[in-house]
Amino acid sequence: MGETIRAALNSLAVAAPDWLVKRLKKDWFDRYGRRVENYRLPKLDSERETLGNQMGEDGFNLLKKIYAPNAP
After folding, report:
1. Domain range spanning residue 10?
2. pTM over 0.90
3. Is residue 72 part of a domain?
4. Which residues of 11-24 are buried (b: 16+ CB within 10 A; e: fewer)?
5. Does residue 8 belong to any structural domain of this protein?
6. Does residue 46 belong to any structural domain of this protein?
7. What's the domain count of the chain?
8. Domain assignment of residue 6, yes or no
9. Quick check: 1 and 57 in contact, CB under 8 A?
């Protein structure tokens, strides 16, 4: 899931950089700035679940922004 969001953000950075910059959340850089396999995932199941839920929320948030009427 994290790699999918990272790839989408990278594509948007090329296609509509000004639009994307205005809509990025600061913590997205920490989660999606590098490939998911290049950083350590939490060891505890509860922490991995929390991270997965956050990534899912980020993905839905990004989709809402992409499909908004004012999106390029």
Report:
1. 2-66
2. no
3. no
4. ebeeeeeeebeeee
5. yes
6. yes
7. 1
8. yes
9. no
